Amino acid sequence: MKEKLTTLEEALAPIASGSTLALGGSLLRRQPNAAIRSLIRRGVKDLTVQSWAATTATDMLAAAGAISRFEGIYTGMFSYGLAPNFRRGVEGGAIAVRDFSETAMVARFRAATQGLAFLPIKTLLGSDIARHNPEQIRPFSCPFTGEPLQAVAAAKADFTIIHGYVGDKYGNVQWPIVRDSDDIDQMIASAATRLIVTVEKIVPHEEIKRRPTLTYIPGNWVEAIVELPYGAHPAACDGHYDEDDAHLTGYLERSRTPEGAQTYLDEYARSVPDHDAYVAKVGGLAALEALDVPNREQTHA
Amino acid sequence: MKEKLTTLEEALAPIASGSTLALGGSLLRRQPNAAIRSLIRRGVKDLTVQSWAATTATDMLAAAGAISRFEGIYTGMFSYGLAPNFRRGVEGGAIAVRDFSETAMVARFRAATQGLAFLPIKTLLGSDIARHNPEQIRPFSCPFTGEPLQAVAAAKADFTIIHGYVGDKYGNVQWPIVRDSDDIDQMIASAATRLIVTVEKIVPHEEIKRRPTLTYIPGNWVEAIVELPYGAHPAACDGHYDEDDAHLTGYLERSRTPEGAQTYLDEYARSVPDHDAYVAKVGGLAALEALDVPNREQTHA
Amino acid sequence: MPENKIDLAADVATMSPTTNEIVTAAIAREIRDGDLAFVGVGTNGRAFTLAVGIPLTAVRLAQMLHAPSASVYWGNLLEPDLSSMPADLKQDSFTRWQAAACPSDTGVKCDMLARRAFDVCFDSAAQIDRFGNLNITAIGDYRNPKVRLVGCLAQPEHFAFVPRPIVVVDLDRRVFVEAVDFITSVGHLRGGRSREEAGLSSGGPQLVVTDKAIFDFEPGSRQMRLRSLHPGVTAEEVFDLMSFRPVLPEQLPATPLPSMQELDLIRRVIDPNRVLLRV
Amino acid sequence: MPENKIDLAADVATMSPTTNEIVTAAIAREIRDGDLAFVGVGTNGRAFTLAVGIPLTAVRLAQMLHAPSASVYWGNLLEPDLSSMPADLKQDSFTRWQAAACPSDTGVKCDMLARRAFDVCFDSAAQIDRFGNLNITAIGDYRNPKVRLVGCLAQPEHFAFVPRPIVVVDLDRRVFVEAVDFITSVGHLRGGRSREEAGLSSGGPQLVVTDKAIFDFEPGSRQMRLRSLHPGVTAEEVFDLMSFRPVLPEQLPATPLPSMQELDLIRRVIDPNRVLLRV
Fold first, then answer.
1. Domain parsing of chain B, residue ranges
2. Which domain holds residue C202?
3. How many CA atoms lie within 13 A of B142 on its CB side?
4. Is D78 on the interface with A (CB under 8 A)?
5. Which residues in chain A have their CB less than 8 angstroms from residue D116's CB?
6. DSSP one-letter code for B82
7. Which of A246, C55, C100, C277 is the least crowded, having the fewest Cβ atoms under 10 Å away?
């Protein structure tokens, strides 16, 4: 096993403008927000983003003008409504969208995982999703039955960023027993070309290897791992802490105007040198610990 | 939720001669041996068996002359060598075999899980596995790249039998935290048309729903669940008990001849009315408990 | 038209039913024993009531009355315990919510959709047209939208694979349009057999439940058809709230009112704090 | 020809190397730092040594010497701790064996194969031919076999997707045949570019390591080529044990002997109880 523990800035250094990024998390859990703030700070632009149910990470990137194309199943703010900056980006023509339904996006990640250029679905027959995207959704016939099917192109990303629970210095990442679903994190990890994982906590390898069935991202798939407590803030990390309602509400209020969104990014992404400074800016660990949920059965129990 | 707890005989009653059966387990773990002994007792014949790494369950069915066709990746006795009765059945022409490699068989189960008639692979180009099976492995071209691919037909079984760890009366089956892989059990459970699960132990639903992430077979997929302690004997159930070396050695010795194999089946399958009688025949629970392994972290801890 | 607000201090059993309660009871009667229903995620306010509140209450009501083994898949939870619904939508409420299963991978749910393991699903939308096609993706030109909406989620799957989709929306001229701007979910497409000709299974949306009336689809033409009017609502009111004219059935009954027992269960047992049917 | 048996009572460092040790050290030198190697499951006796014992010992030796981050996927374990190998092959030894990961689903391993996540794999076989095609399925006519073997396992995947497959077999006329009865794993097919023409990636088997000699494949023709002879073995002996004549290189060196350090690690640290290299 190879040591892969590094700093956020080192881990993200290879990500240049123009890259395709796959982002983990779903709705308001495990959004890789700390990593996204670092990319915004560095001014990375012209990204193609692939995602599952996208919220904060994608909307902040949109506010920064960093997304030129989005491919996914949803962008919004879950119980907080639509995603204001993403919406502005699409309506203003800055962001091109390719919409996919859930089976379609899953098929795309699975195709990349399986080393295939495509996988078949039959979900989007007759839908405008397919009609507007002949480049990535193609009709073909079942080799056995002749029935009409659709081939969806593999989702290949240059880089994949996931925020996980706990991991070791070799990049093995484990989930707690009581948790929400991983959604697509294992799927996009297995599909990744270059995988960067941030975790709440680095634990000794001895703890990881005692219960290898809890490893959902094997270190073998990982290029770099970074310890970032509260790395999903202001979103939640299930089993660790809840979403920050006050912060999210403030974000959405400022995001009513493009100018307001810029003041938010200036304050929380561009003017802070790193994640520690961000933590200090939002009130320090003491403030964040107020979001903690009861520790039930963690990997590191 | 619906109560699905029943007896082995009731659960297996719909399985008639001529059916296609998918069998769970891999190598010497979680073979659904008690269920197989019950089918042999009843004289079910002419089965098509779909399996992963098949050992005792498939070899006993072969000894009973109950298999007319086998589709899988392996049949043997793991560290005990070849599968004597299966081998005799194939060499004597009683059993027709369709061989599949691991990615091919996984693609077949996944296709059934996804409601598709096939999935693509590129593993078997040039192989005699494909050449001998044009009915289930067909060449076609990638709709995006034009590269040669192979379509493998969905593995559709009439019935699927799995031996699991613990479950509740609604058919929800959970695995322990320290365990071996489930191999294909979740995969064939999700692909099943009618799913019958035997488990080491029935536990209260309250215990199951406390940790829903440990449920690998949701009761929603299950037709019947049966409590059968040591239901995999003489194979192992990882985390519960080891394989029975003495019994397996005796089985293989008697299986050197077709007649010897019949005396084995007479003694352990045909002459015992049910699983309790089988347990008594092999020395009772006391004898079987000698195979137990230290209970580490069970679902029902 | 009844209001949704009820006075909790009054004797709950004697209050007349709200529209939400009428709709919920009507949906509950569509749920059969053994049904597995897909409930999506909602946003807040009225959208939450339509997408989540009414469906969960209806399935729970059916469970308690005539469909004890009916169940739902909500978020990542298969068969969550509807007898103890979370009091809020914060992440930890989901994490803690007890269920039969929480599959690790969202692909498990997608595969269940594609292999037609669901019986019923609930859908809300920004636009629905005469043939029950839905739009939750964009208003206006797709490439240059007037309003960008959330995307697609699994709504295309619902209409492609679930035998009995139920649409829950409020009646509104901007929602009930002649043709949706973008077909996210293929309903009866252009009517007749056009859905099957596109390669989809027969099926498609079965019911459209609104705050004024309930619709189904006419066999043959597959056009939206008025099925019943909620108490006090006239057909003219309904037509005024639609950009197309639905088919009229020979008989146009009133939507049945909830029974005393149904009302009592909704108000006192299922949603005593008015979380699910708040607005 | 050295024997595999060593007298453990004697000073291990001074005993001359066994054939298994020569072969193990030779394979260890093929392992590069960072390699992920696929090790299959073996049956018992000599078959276990070839399929499991030699590969695991070789990778562990490489880990300790020049490839600290090399690792294996064995059974269902990704990166099991090779510093504490199980003492037996009973199920609980696998269940208890510590590893970086034990993916719940065998599909995870299959997908890793198909996306070419492995660097090296080890294969044993009942038959191998001039072009390195393998048979582990059936001897004789496939539909009416003389001997039915185990099937296929993931051996087709190994040759289809792993860049550097290493075959470990004993030299025997019935094993090294002109053409295998059934192509389970496609090696260099019919030689030349026939493998690529069938649609497979370039690659295919790189080395064939036996108890008498090591072979590689001649570029261009892709025929099996003698690479080195184990100490004390002659080319004639090798030819007598093969049903086809391999290509002869210009120079035919002896297989290098293990160093004192390699022998010491194999004997005292990796396999002190002679479990892996017993027979």
1. 8-99+156-298
2. 124-223+235-255
3. 19
4. yes
5. 115
6. S
7. A246
DSSP string, A121-154: E-S-TT-HHHHT-TTTEEEEE-TTT--EEEEEE-
Q: Are A79 and C134 in contact, with CB atoms under 8 Å apart? A: no
* CB spacing of A1 vs D98 below 8 angstroms: no
User: CA of A12, closest CA in chain C: separation in Å?
Assistant: 26
| One domain, residues C271 and C173 | no
Please report whether residue C229 resides in a domain: no
The CA-CA-CA angle for residues B289, B292, B293, to 5°, reads 160
D53 & D95 share domain: yes
This prediction has a pTM of: 0.97
Tell if the CB–CB gap between D199 and B126 is shorter than 8 Å: yes
Residues 53-82 of A with CB under 8 A from C: 53, 72-82
| CB neighbour class for D170 (10 Å; exposed up to 12, middle 13-18, buried from 19) | middle
C158 in any annotated domain: yes
Q: Convert the pLDDT of each residue in D211-230 to its tens digit.
A: 999 999 999 999 999 999 99
Q: Do C246 and C142 share a structural domain?
A: yes
- Kindly state the average pLDDT of the residues B49-72: 98
CB of D125 less than 8 A from some CB of B: no
Number of domains in chain D: 2
Q: How many angstroms separate the CA atoms of B234 and B163, rounded?
A: 13
CB contact under 8 A, A177 and B214: yes
Distance, in Å, from the CA atom of C197 to the CA atom of A67, rounded to the nearest integer, reads 38
User: Which chains have 3+ CB pairs within 8 A of C?
Assistant: A, B
Whether residue C132 sits in one domain with residue C79: no
Tell me the average confidence (pLDDT) per consecutive run of 10 residues in chain C, 279 residues long: 52 78 98 97 88 96 98 95 86 93 95 98 97 98 97 97 98 98 98 96 95 98 98 97 97 96 96 90
Judging contacts by C-beta atoms under 8 Å, the chain C residues touching residue A62 are none
Task: Please check whether residues D138 and D49 belong to one and the same domain.
Answer: no
Cis omega (within 30 of 0) for bond into D256: no
Q: Does D167 share its domain with D245?
A: yes
Q: Edge-to-edge, what's the strand order for the sheet holding D224-229?
A: D99-101, D77-80, D71-74, D36-39, D120-123, D164-168, D207-209, D213-217, D224-229
D65 touches A: beta carbon within 8 Å: no
Domain membership of residue D228 (yes or no) is no
Contact B152, B107 (CB under 8 A): yes
Looking at domain A8-99+156-298, its CATH architecture is: 3-Layer(aba) Sandwich (3.40)
- The interface predicted TM-score of the complex, written ipTM, equals 0.96
Helix axes A84-91, A258-265, angle to 10 degrees: 130
Is C108 in Cβ contact with B1 (below 8 Å)? no
Residues C151 and C111 in one domain: no
Q: What is the rounded CA–CA span in Å between residue C89 and residue A230?
A: 20
> Does pLDDT of D6 surpass 90?
no
User: Residue D163's domain is classified under what CATH number?
Assistant: 3.40.1080.10
C184 closest CB neighbour out of A82, A96, A129: A129
Interface mutation vs chain B, best among A101, A109, A116, A156, most B CBs within 10 Å = A116
Domain assignment present for residue D229? The answer is no
Cis bond leading into A234, ω under 30°? yes
